[in-house]
Amino acid sequence: MKTQIFSEAINNRNQIKFLYGFNEVVLEPYYIARSASGKKFIYGRVNNSVEIKKFEFGLIVNIRVENNRRFSPRILFNS
User: Fold this and answer.
1) What is this structure's pTM?
2) What Cα–Cα distance (Å) separates residue 3 from each residue in 14, 33, 42, 75?
3) What does the pLDDT read at residue 28?
4) I want to staple 18 with a disulfide (CB 3.0 to 4.6 A). Which of 63, 69, 73, 74 is the partner?
């Protein structure tokens, strides 16, 4: 179920909100991956940050897709 929610948000470029531990995260989701041990992760840019972070699926709860909050992926170039 989480995979489907996240995949649709990635395809539609919708921001998502969820609880990760005791913190609320607002994320621009970029992609889903699986580690060598088989755990799933979602990678994305945290709101008001330039860094890409990963979040383990098993620790994510209360997911909300922000249908009215779309984003364009940011590509940073070092000169």
Assistant:
1) 0.83
2) 14, 10, 9, 24
3) 92
4) 63
